[in-house]
Write a structure and sequence with these properties.
The protein is of the alpha/beta class and 95 residues long. It is 31% helix and 20% strand. The protein has 4 helices and 5 strands. It is found in: Cytoplasm. This is Protein TusB.
């Protein structure tokens, strides 16, 4: 399953999201959702511990000027790779 976080993690039920992640799931943060990957985020340890594949849209990270503060546990991808993730995952959950 592909879980996409669009909104700020501070406006989302992150504990519920994390509880629904499985090892084989893909997690993609875009728009304000990329804030979850900040190295000082209160959610960072929990999302990393989920063992899901973690992705960020690189354009959204750069647009917010936070590239130097992003956890190395996340892979930066383009919108083209986002399309590939949607094709790989037949089911999706948008947060």
């Amino acid at each position: 399953m592909l879980h996409t976080l669009i909104h700020s993690p501070y406006k989302t039920n992150i504990p519920l999201l994390i509880s629904m992640l499985n090892k084989k799931d893909d997690f993609l943060a875009l728009q304000d959702g990329v804030l979850i990957a900040l190295t000082n985020s209160v959610f960072l340890d929990s999302i990393i511990f989920s063992s899901a594949n973690l992705y960020l849209i690189q354009e959204d990270v750069y647009a917010r000027g936070i590239i130097k503060n992003i956890s190395s546990d996340f892979m930066l991808i383009s919108y083209i790779n986002f399309v590939s993730l949607t094709l790989k995952n037949k089911t999706q959950m948008v947060w």
